[in-house]
Design goal:
It is built from 5 helices and no strands. By secondary structure, the protein is an all-alpha fold. The longest helix has 21 residues.
Amino acid sequence: MTKKYLILIFLLSLVVEIFPQAMKTRKWRRTEVDSLNNALLLYDEGNYLLALPIFDNLYNHHPSENFLKYSYGKCALYRSDKYDVALKMLEEVYEKNKKIADIDFD
């Protein structure tokens, strides 16, 4: 049982390390990077509603980051009052990259 948790933590740490590098987080404040890491952990665990306000805050500070748009849009699908925001975000990401897995489905 603990082996599974250690493997999961290792894989999550790899994911957390990969995405911020792709998003150019070097100029971000340390608190923003920590928030992104927390949001990614919640997102990976399927806690989309808990991750939504964190992605919302990060997106408001960095609106040009496509990964934040995609993550924010995916999380916004789980709140009925955010469907229009989710559609807008996912359409913007789809225009730039049509090869994202299951984006047509979303």
